[in-house]
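Before going further, learn to read the protein records used in this course. Taken together, the tokens spell out the fold as the letters spell out the chain. A record is reproduced here so that you can trace the correspondence yourselves:

***
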Amino acid sequence: VVNEIKASQYIYVRENSIEYNQPILQPAKANTTLAACFCCGNSPTDLTVRDQISIIYFDDILMDNIRNDTRPCNPLLSFCCGGRGEEVRLESKVMGGWCYRGRGLSACCCVPCVPLGCPECLCPCAAKRTIFVED
């Protein structure tokens, strides 16, 4: 499964956008009736890879601030504890850097600014993204 994740990760830099895939693990479909009944259709032992492809255009507000947010001693820590690669942060901050710019993605999330400490699950409209890049 780890090899499948590595094989499906990519970053394309095009003339007007960045396209990247950061795949995640998910349970595989159950292959027996018993597992389907007890595990809601998921396999209790098998995992599969699900792609998460994103495209960010260069005129998007996310391109206001691009920074390297890699942890110190990343190669050593990745060797000892594992890691996802170097971290690149794309974000758009306002109000002196205390808030992320809000993006009107839906009627339920139309706030103009999101405080820095607000978790993404509460307000997914914050203009920020994290991309993990390997050498």
Summary: The mean pLDDT is 79. The radius of gyration is 18 Å. The chain is about 15% helix and 40% strand. The CA atoms of residues 63 and 90 lie 6 Å apart.
